[in-house]
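Exercise 3.2. Students should predict the tertiary structure of the chain below and write it as structure tokens, then compare their answer with the key that follows.

Predict this chain's 3D structure.
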Amino acid sequence: MSERGNLAQARAALVPTLLMAATFAVIASGFSLFLRHQAPVPDMNVLSPKLAAYQAQADAYDTVFIGTSRTFYHVVPDEVEAAAESAGCPRPDVFNFGVFGLTGAEQDWLVDHVLEAGKGTLRTVVIEDPLPEARALDNATNERARFFHGPAEYGPTIKSIASFPESAPKKIFRLGMFGAGAAYDLSGVGRAAALFFPAPEKPAPFKLDMGFDGFEILGSQPTPDIDARRKDFLEHPDKFDAAMARYGAASDENVAARAIYLEDRLRRIRALGLNAALFISPDPEELDRTPRVGVELARIAPDLPVLNFNRPDAYPDLFERGLWFDQSHYGEAGARALSRVLGAELCSELKRSDAGAQHAIR
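Answer key:
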């Protein structure tokens, strides 16, 4: 057979093969989405117990901080409450909703649940700039990531990636990882088996000590990873010094889109008649990014409270090396020192902002 005949035969075989693959993909995706709606919310480390604890007693809190591990390990509710009261505001009731590795879509989801549970009691929501999407496949296909890779998260995730101040190639790579995670979710791999053939004994849900209203002292629950981070911090002071040197260094990364992204989220909360503020925690490893995001947000939205503490020039005492547990998280002393300043400045900002005046002033 001639070469032309071979090509024609190959094309003839390719068309039905592609149609079959497309049909299978559509059916598999539809079945996977059906199973997604039937499956319960998975038990997620820290996130699930915190959400359950908040929903069970939402009427006990009027102020919620929602953020990453910086919020989890840095915001001490009792210290924030006492400092706000000393600064002349009614004493708030603070819940720390910090979660490891919180991304933009996850934060949007959590805000929705907090707003729903806190109706009638909630007055103030303070959000942190969430982390970027995963750049590793295992972080895009684990159980928690799979839950947040459904169709409802496509738009929020793409917005978060597009707004993050980093180079175009890095954004494209994150989009690729998100696409891989979404494809894995749509494939339905493992979902039917988990739903129809559950394990005879489910693992015990992760539990968290809520004695500090969601705050945890870093190092109080040691793990090999936490111990390794502490050891690295103690043995390599040069890394801390190098991170500190990032502050004020020239950067080509434009933060305007990220400021707009955060403004949209704050205004959505504020439109419900609540106080909304952005919390930027001290974090040496982010000194070249988050301070500039905060400055830009304050510039474009001067009416919104921006609690920008990642500025060694303005808060030198908060960057003493002895306060830190690792390269980007405080130990207990640092968390308490920050929380006292945070409570006082939150009070001041709520007094200044139009939306917060009715709640902040005695």
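Discussion points: The CA atoms of residues 11 and 156 lie 40 Å apart. Residues 45-133+203-360 form a domain with the Rossmann fold fold (CATH 3.40.50.1110).
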